[in-house]
Design goal:
The chain is α/β, with parallel strands linked by helices and about 400 residues long. The chain has helices spanning about 5-30, 60-65, 85-95, 110-120, 140-145, 170-195, 210-215, 225-235, 255-285, 290-300, 305-320, 330-335, 340-350, 360-385, and strands at about 50-55, 75-80, 100-105, 130, 155-165, 205-210, 240-250.
Length: about 400
């Protein structure tokens, strides 16, 4: 057996192991009961600061309107505007006269989103900090529900569920991007929530201010500031809560170029956060072994992009040299064993009530999956040698 065959089989074995994790989550997802949104409770209402980082996102107009319509009694809104686009600046300024709103600007974009949020903390009075990216549309009772877990003084951060009603079915790219995230929110999040080890997703989330300040705030310049902060909060023993019934809709990337750049930052950023904090997680005396394992394993899932890239390249070489490893029967078995991701996608779409999109997801997985894997692998290599730029995913906006 030559080196190409060995490389191919090693990659196939690794992908099979990852596939079985997806199979396990998919099976478990069949038995997860959908939590109904509880009746709002008004007996606990800490002061909340809603922070909105903005960079040339004209779509922020609808978010600010939704936030100002919250039914919550005690909150303020800080718009941290780093925009250079004059239209976005005018939109933001149109809210500056509102009594709940403060608009703040910096002379530079140092630290990017994390830098903007750290700067916003200087002007924030809230005991709970809520963060939204510009394209989100939260429901009116969002704050009322997301503050409730903070009754427990050990809870440090809370994540709401993302939904994609706006453009999930727009094209193959949105179906693939959205189903990936639905797998995370319908399967990974509920599993991790049972162990108190969820990851913040960067938007539609809330953080206890005391916990935030104790761990030192946002790490400016990181590619995935949400994952990096998560690992520091978790290492200090703060509990996390996921609210699957609290949905906030947002917009998916709808072009291949935008999607690939977004995925490059996310996949590389989560690994960056892992390598910055793995010693802290392992040495933490406030985490159980199972919690450490989950916190350490989830970032390493991003290494699967490298494995897929190796598998794709090895397959091409085998085809070029007309080397056959499997009989058709064994090849079919290998396909079934490595299809856990597809099955998890079907279960996630089923839980979302969108199983009609599964054929598109199936096609998109085989068409786009290898492209995304190769792109992410190349960008990980680029990061190691010369870094990776911080990329803001552009959003479509119509007045």
């Amino acid at each position: 057996m030559g080196p190409i065959e060995i490389l191919y089989l090693a990659a196939l074995f690794t992908i099979t192991l990852i596939s079985f994790i997806y199979y396990g989550l998919a099976f478990w997802g069949l038995f997860i009961k959908e939590e109904k949104k509880p009746k709002p409770k008004k007996d606990f209402a800490p002061f909340v600061t809603v922070q909105i980082p903005v960079y040339n996102d004209r779509i922020v107009e609808r978010l600010v309107k939704a936030v100002l319509n919250f039914d919550y009694p005690n909150y303020e809104v800080i718009i941290a505007d780093d925009s250079t686009d004059p239209v976005t600046r005018r939109i933001v300024d149109s809210f500056a006269s509102h009594p709940k709103v403060k608009v703040i600007r910096r002379n530079s974009r140092e630290g990017f989103k994390a830098g903007a949020l750290n700067n916003a903390m200087k002007y924030s009075k809230g005991d709970v900090i809520v963060v939204f990216d510009s394209d989100f549309i939260p429901p009116r009772d969002f704050l009322t529900h997301i503050v409730q877990p903070f009754k427990d003084p050990q809870v440090g951060y809370v994540q709401a569920r993302w939904s994609f009603d706006e453009n999930l079915d727009e094209n193959l790219i949105t179906v693939f991007a959205g189903t990936n995230l639905l797998i995370y929110h319908h399967l990974f999040y509920p599993f991790k929530s049972k162990q108190g080890t969820i990851y913040l997703s960067g938007s539609a989330m809330a953080i206890r201010r005391d916990a935030f300040e104790k761990v030192g705030g946002w790490k400016a310049g990181t590619l995935a500031e949400d994952a990096e902060l998560t690992l520091r909060l978790a290492s200090e023993g703060y509990k996390s809560v996921y609210l699957p019934y609290l949905r906030a809709d947002n917009q998916l990337p709808y072009t291949l170029n935008v999607f690939m750049k977004q995925q490059a930052r996310w996949s590389t950023g989560v690994l960056e956060a892992f390598f910055m904090n793995w010693k802290r997680i392992l040495s933490s005396k406030k985490l159980k072994p199972i919690q450490k394992a989950i916190l350490m394993t989830i970032p390493l899932f991003n290494l699967s992009y490298i494995i897929v890239t190796i598998l794709v390249l090895a397959s091409i070489l085998l085809w070029m040299f007309n080397i056959k490893i499997f009989t058709p029967e064994i090849a079919l078995l290998a396909l079934l064993l490595t299809s856990g991701f597809l099955v998890a996608g079907y279960i996630a779409l089923r839980r979302e009530g969108r199983t009609q999109l599964f054929p598109k997801f199936l096609v998109a997985t085989y068409l786009l999956g290898p492209l995304i894997a190769i792109s992410n692998t190349l960008n990980m290599i680029r990061y190691v040698f010369k870094g990776l730029p911080w990329y803001v995913t552009p959003k479509r906006w119509q007045k």
